[in-house]
């Protein structure tokens, strides 16, 4: 693509570095910004810079935070006996949106992935081990994606945490609510039979 | 969605104002920026601001330009007897990429669309009428999208330009190269029969 302006070309190239945005989409975004007020572009770009330079991570759970300790860790209403271990911030947001969980979190910052060169020491696993003894945690829920990497990380964590006296659980795997049995893959369906739950009578 | 940080929330909201980017995609972009170097965010945001504040429009053809007159209008190698009227800058880029056109352009800045409240006076039509008498233009190609709005604009332009002694043509409409007759809609196929071209013998 040949651009009539170096400024446009630059902006398109920077936008196209973002995941899922190609040069055509980037150009569409640039044209949108050109049609909108200059102020909109200023707001966008200052929000990005302030976010990137101002962001902090909670020193307890490593979730993203505006303060030294995040809103969840410092909330006296949260249940301090239960800890949910997740891969990243998006998982915290997803679980918070369910309104089904009132405990604390621990954000690993990824999962073990030898292919991508991510080992246990690249994740916040040591800090998890260190925060437990002085905590009131009685149950640790591993809420990791049901992938090879997620399962490897879960396996590593269960071994790493075996000396700490807490129940370690995993989020349930089974047929998604609203899903059709017919179209569920064999592994998930098999798992849903093995992990069947009794109707409370 | 509840965000653990006002800074993140702000950045997500600003990104989600862009067309085709929802809050989930915006969050993915934000997390990408957080994982990348701070410098990357600075580069992106300064490219956007410089683009938005520094951009100029060619005073002759209204294409986007870094100078007062754009690279195409000022290029002595372009054919000044032929003028292509397009809706916006993207069309110029698309036509330039074909390498099939060596004439000049005129960018209208949109098409007539009563539904969106865009009338002839909102477009660069008057300046088109004004630039013609002092030009060498012998043919005007209307390269507008084959939509209701594009056709309306083309009809308006043919009437507006009827006193100017130039041949007015439209880009060909027909079966796309590589397209299958079977899957071409009736209107396009009908048009392609009416506008059939003779094999040069």
Reconstruct the topology from this structure.
Two copies of one chain form a homodimer.
Chain A: H1 6-15, H2 23-35, H3 38-54, E1 56-57, E2 64-65, E3 82-86, H4 89-98, E4 104-107, H5 126-131, E5 139-142, H6 148-160, E6 167-170, H7 186-194
Parallel strand pairs in A: 3-4, 3-5, 5-6
Antiparallel strand pairs in A: 1-2
InterPro entries (chains A, B): DNA_Rcmb_RecR (IPR000093), Hlx-hairpin-Hlx_DNA-bd_motif (IPR003583), Rcmb_RecR (IPR023627), Rcmb_RecR_Znf (IPR015967), TOPRIM_dom (IPR006171), TOPRIM_RecR (IPR034137)
Protein name (chains A, B): Recombination protein RecR
Family (chains A, B): Belongs to the RecR family.
Short characterization:
Chain A is an alpha/beta fold. Chain A contains seven helices and six strands; from the N terminus they run αααβββαβαβαβα. In chain A, 39% of the residues lie in helices and 10% in strands.
Describe the structure.
Two copies of one chain form a homodimer. The relative contact order of chain A is 0.08. The N and C termini of chain A lie far apart (67 Å). A four-stranded parallel β-sheet of chain A has the order 4-3-5-6. Chain A has a two-stranded antiparallel sheet with strand order 1-2. Chain A is of the alpha/beta class. Chain A folds into two domains: 6-54, Helicase, Ruva Protein, domain 3 (Orthogonal Bundle); 57-170, 3-Layer(aba) Sandwich (Dna Topoisomerase Vi A Subunit, Chain: A, domain 2). The model of chain A has no long low-confidence stretch (mean pLDDT 90). The radius of gyration of chain A is 22 Å and the shape is globular. Chain A is built from seven helices and six strands, in the order αααβββαβαβαβα. Chains A and B meet through helix 1, helix 2, helix 3, strand 2 and helix 4 of A and helix 1, helix 2, helix 3, strand 2 and helix 4 of B.
